[in-house]
Design brief:
The chain is mainly α and 143 residues long. 12% of the residues are buried. The model has no long low-confidence stretch (mean pLDDT 93).
Length: 143
């Protein structure tokens, strides 16, 4: 009989749901979701990325990224600016409000992460990050 409760897929899904829920709970007061926070976080590192670049960095399809950007734009956190080299493409740029939220939202992210990972040791956290990064870099399952 298949042991679903100990399967990697099931465990990853349940851990993801728990982490997503904890983070979403804290972001609700900002009317943000964890995926929207991820886009902001990439823009805090490098403002003015294209939608294509954000899609690649987040590993989210361009259509979904477009919807996330639309919602961030409606919240006044980002704006689309034309790319000088290609008038069909847009750079996604933080607004003053989007930039201002960085320290506050990053502090919330750190608090949620600390709470989420509190059941495991620092060494286990490091090992978990390493394993997850390895799996993320090989989406097809190849070495």
């Amino acid at each position: 009989m298949y042991d679903i409760e100990n399967s990697i897929g099931f465990l990853l899904a349940k851990v993801y749901q728990r982490g997503f829920g904890l983070f979403k709970e804290q972001l609700d007061r900002y009317d943000l979701t964890p995926p929207q926070f991820s886009l902001l976080a990439f823009l805090w590192i490098e403002d003015g990325l294209s939608q294509t670049c954000l899609s690649q960095k987040t590993q989210v399809d361009r259509t979904t990224i477009g919807g996330l950007i639309d919602r961030l734009e409606k919240l006044g956190l980002v704006k689309r600016l034309p790319t000088p080299q290609d008038r069909r493409a847009y750079r996604i740029c933080l607004t003053k409000r989007g930039k201002k939220l960085e320290s506050e939202l990053c502090a919330i992210s750190a608090q949620v992460t600390e709470k989420f990972l509190s059941p495991i040791s620092i060494e286990e956290q490091s090992a978990l990050r390493s394993i997850l990064n390895k799996l993320r870099q090989h989406p097809e399952g190849s070495p």
